[in-house]
Amino acid sequence: MVRVFKYAVIRLAVFFVVWGACMLLGLGWIFSTIAAAVIALAAGYLFFNDLRTGAGSDVASAWEGRGKREQFKSEQADADAEDSYTEGRYFEPGSDAGPWEPKGK
């Protein structure tokens, strides 16, 4: 996620430099904002391609859960105990047993 932070900081820096230059030229805040956004987008896309693609892969990894930490042994033991407790106690749609019969009978 460091690449995401670096890419965001660079894009924000480019945005504010361009915005400040446009404001100093007296172009108005609306035009300055639009011009700075377009130029920051283009600069990030053209000049920081490696950082942009790395940040994108970091976000994709975090979104897919590949960046998650592994469960501790106690968490896994708790999950296993809960699963074994509820196994067969509740009706599961698609099973042969009716909702009034335990799964094991």
Protein model, in words:
- This protein is mostly helical and 105 residues long.
- It has one domain.
- 69% of the residues lie in helices and 0% in strands.
- It is built from four helices and no strands.
- Helix 1 packs across helix 3.
- The longest helix has 23 residues.
- It is elongated and about 75 Å long.
- 7% of the residues are buried.
Write the layout of secondary structure elements.
Layout: H1 2-24, H2 29-47, H3 49-64, H4 73-86
Helix pairs in contact: 1-2, 1-3
* Biggest sheet architecture: none
Succession of helices and strands:
HHHH
With helices defined by DSSP (H or I, 4 residues minimum), what is the helix count? 4
- Mean pLDDT over the full residue set: 82
> What is Rg?
27 Å
Low-pLDDT runs: none
* SS strand fraction: under 5%
Count of distinct structural domains: 1
- Please count the beta strands (DSSP E, at least 2 residues each): 0
The end-to-end distance, rounded to whole angstroms, is: 52 Å
Structural category:
mainly alpha
What is the molecular shape?
Answer: elongated
What's the helical proportion of residues? 55-70%
